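Lab notebook, page 48
Experiment: co-folding of the full assembly
Goal: obtain a model of how the components sit together before planning crosslinking
Operator: M.T.
Materials (sequences as entered):
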Amino acid sequence: MNDWANRGQRTADYDLLLDLPAARLAAGGGARSGLEHALREAVRDGRLPPGTRLPSSRVLAGDLGLARNTVADAYAQLVAEGWLTARQGSGTTVAPRPDAAAPPPRPRRRTPSTAPGPAASAELVPDETAGLPYTLWPGSPDLASFPRAAWGAAARRALAAAPNSAFGYTDPRGRPELRAALAAYLARVRGVRTDPEHLLICTGFVQATGLLARVLYGRGARRIAVEEVGFPDTRTLLRTAGLETVPLPVDEDGARVELLDGGPQGRGTSAVLLTPAHQFPNGVRLSPGRRTAVTAWARATGGLIVEDDYDGEFRYDRQPVGALQGLAPDHVVYAGTASKSLAPGLRLAWLALPPHLMAEVVKQKRMADHHSPVLDQLTLAEFLVSGDYDRHVRRMRLRYRRRRDRLVAALAERAPRVRVSGIAAGLHAVLELPPEAGPLDTVVARARSRGLALSPHPVYGGPPDAPAALVIGYGTPPESGFGAALDLLCEVLTDTTA
Amino acid sequence: MNDWANRGQRTADYDLLLDLPAARLAAGGGARSGLEHALREAVRDGRLPPGTRLPSSRVLAGDLGLARNTVADAYAQLVAEGWLTARQGSGTTVAPRPDAAAPPPRPRRRTPSTAPGPAASAELVPDETAGLPYTLWPGSPDLASFPRAAWGAAARRALAAAPNSAFGYTDPRGRPELRAALAAYLARVRGVRTDPEHLLICTGFVQATGLLARVLYGRGARRIAVEEVGFPDTRTLLRTAGLETVPLPVDEDGARVELLDGGPQGRGTSAVLLTPAHQFPNGVRLSPGRRTAVTAWARATGGLIVEDDYDGEFRYDRQPVGALQGLAPDHVVYAGTASKSLAPGLRLAWLALPPHLMAEVVKQKRMADHHSPVLDQLTLAEFLVSGDYDRHVRRMRLRYRRRRDRLVAALAERAPRVRVSGIAAGLHAVLELPPEAGPLDTVVARARSRGLALSPHPVYGGPPDAPAALVIGYGTPPESGFGAALDLLCEVLTDTTA
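Observation: model returned without errors.
Model output:
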């Protein structure tokens, strides 16, 4: 009965089912993303219930007048995102979604009382790139590529168009112009399911982490799971708010979220912070099975998933995997940022929030700084609406992709025993060093003595028996300095591993 | 011996003593501010010790070749700021400064342990102006007067001149360009004694309050004195950080800071937050005697004074009283903001910090949002350096002064029993209503029904037996709407009090 391929009047049904008028295809950035969008919507709203078998890509492509690869790619994308399941022999079916319709159970409130309070001793990571002429330290885009001219023009238009009221104290969520532009952008590019009312603009992801941590703590949460390797400041911020951070090991399929279910990691844990599209720093993506598992955990326990989508726009080998948030908008806080796509100096980030968290996060934001500064918000809105943002991201994607290719090729030639791990995405890669490379500290010190800042993997935590590795921020240098930085890196690694 | 007027070679000595070369007079914005600056410096560094009797204004004016009024005004200014004392019959002498040279005793640290933690129930003040066509609600400058063209031009220059590194993660204190420009501006205009290393740019005064409250709490502080009437959100923020707020009554001489010394208000109180230049909302200034008293308290106890100088640039009847911070830079945190001088939407504020607090505030700032957004910072730096800021403040000072004059004149004519209290300064005034005005709620409701938002004084706290009063934000409406708002106000008050 759910076997779609056996229905009559196939073409007409597809159109109805997938809400695929020509307009959507034309507007949505091409047939493939239009098809993906339509399929996601159909799964979400129940028109394609779990277990439904989809027609083969050949059949659907023929019916819709699309290239077969277009359909196959869309299927693969939705499998990766957890919407569909592909099994050898049984074709493509809609993935099971545990009680998707049930309202999210709210975490029990405890009386906030004897809080650990601010962890005054928490230390933040120092800047180790200062004073060195070359850097491959991760965490920053190429600042020299900031689109000054286009940004300046957008700022001028935004300043001229702003209503007087924009210069006053405004909505703690941020300017409505930006929230509207972002809601559309995030739906189109990242598959985020939100609306302007449930977006909140904040002064960088650091602030977002603090706001969420305080809200969670206020709701009685005391433990939050985090990826065992990750940005150390994030853990510091969570702990400062009184939360215990519970590490989840990270393997080739991403964080081992299944440990939340029954493992000691799950005991008393009411939230988990993940980098599903591109684990930082290990560079893997969260597997489809784990995407399903963690949303099931959230639904079953009322737990909250915080999705840090810091570089989700940069994927080089295929379409980026859509945001986890799209699978379970009531259980996921989606966090995005302009820090990688544009510049950290802007301090612009955004949260897409489940409605039940909205009021508390808004209140924390108002207590943090009332609202984020308005002029950059209005400029980013203008930048998004004008298409400047897409153009900039496309240009940078190509540039970073070339850098990654150059890095991989140079290492293959000059230090072939060094392994580049992680998916082809983002602005950084992990380099696993062979045993003969010697102590990591020596490698880093040798690079330092040549003027190159390198980040040893242990900076980001992880098990003590992890292989020696570097986290290379190939996105960091200016275009003009990348070649020299890469040469220095190869020299250092050739010295060591030759 | 300290009697200056009896020294020989008077003119030469003055030059030496006051560091008054012609250059300083020419550069410093006129003879009077040059003289004030020189006298402040001489008192500060001990060249004019406490008790020194100054020459009469006539004698000094003759010796320096200045108009007598210039010298008399400078003396009056420094008396108001607490540097000098004037007593009928005994002339002008340098004010006593209790152990100014002693290093500040540090507050005892307590172990931060069973903190009250976030006061989840704290409520912020709702916006009551929404939807009304006219508003005289205080707390906002005239947003329609934001200098869009000049700001846009400065933004363009700043964007072009910024080094690439400005777009990255930068110093949590903020951009050095802005800190340098502000240090010079604050010294010149507000008598603040600081340098770029000890300034910290933050995302509005709301954030500054939170940072300071967390630092104080982390140092073991549990009680902070505040003015009994004030902006309620500030008290909420302090309490949220775990601090008990101890109210100080406010009279015609400002907050009754002498109660810190021996009164129950002083017991266990390690900090006090004041609006010395223009009490919010009552509009009085802190008297010279109380300025001296509160700095003496800080010196004796190691207590900290937080000086909220939210509208210090706007004084209409005389030169603004210099910042309290200049009297005791090691004991005062000076807080300034662009929210009144330019626009709240910029979310730009700054702290001048005693060196011993610097590291902890920087750390809190980094945990709050790493640093404030850079582009507006660079633009404000450009705005200050180019003189645009001074020009804008001068223009607005004239405009607000005229509005205040119109308000006073209109009330004198149409509702003469209404008393306008507070000094001629800032963007708001307190209107005390005569008993026949009836219940305040009725007055406010009547204004509302005519489309005018009015703020009843009790919104800001204070004793229950205070006279019925309104806080009128004459700076809030656009220039084009001020007349109509004023007419509505007069109508409402005439209805009530006629």
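Interpretation: DSSP finds 15 helices and 17 strands in chain B.
Next step: discuss with group before ordering constructs.
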